Amino acid sequence: MQVKFLLVHGPNLDMLGIREPDIYGTDTLEGIQQRVCAYAAGKGVEMDCFQSNHEGALIDCIHAAHAAYDGVVYNPGAHTHYSYALRDAVGSISTPVVEVHLSAVDQREPFRAISVVAPACVAQVKGLGVEGYERAVDILLEGHTARLGEGFEARYPAGNVIVARHE
Ligand code: DQA
Prior knowledge:
Elements: E1 3-9, H1 21-24, H2 29-42, E2 45-51, H3 55-65, E3 71-75, H4 84-92, E4 97-101, E5 123-126, H5 131-141, H6 152-155, E6 161-163
Helix pairs in contact: 3-4
Bound molecules: 1,3,4-trihydroxy-5-OXO-cyclohexanecarboxylic acid.
1,3,4-trihydroxy-5-OXO-cyclohexanecarboxylic acid (DQA) binds near residues 13, 77, 80, 101 and 103.
């Protein structure tokens, strides 16, 4: 059966290429989507893409991924740090979700070190730029189902790639 992943971007990520290039690089969102879809296609995976600046639209999109996709690669943007609604959306579906950040969110302003979304995800990838999305595709292909869970930062060694293990 055809494996299908969904690539989701949250608020302000439509501004990639223009937005703070010293932090996020010069690739546009479209360029990133093309690169990640091509990478996934090389692994036999079909990938759809979605971006929104609106929390409700993102919640609807995550809900719709249930049963429709085999995995979700998700950069929640600033929602990462405060949206319990999106964390609950990720927790509502059984489709595994990998959280990705272009930047090293743990090495920037203190508020960025906290992710309220990641505990519901199977993995968190940060600080690897666009390559991080490709790592997320590989993690999904490995078939992880355990979630990181509350307080994962204290239970896993710090690093750019944190994958949940079954406890
Ligand atoms: C980001 C990091 C977030 O803190 C920020 O709000 C973003 C982008 C990243 O990809 O590095 O919008 O998710």
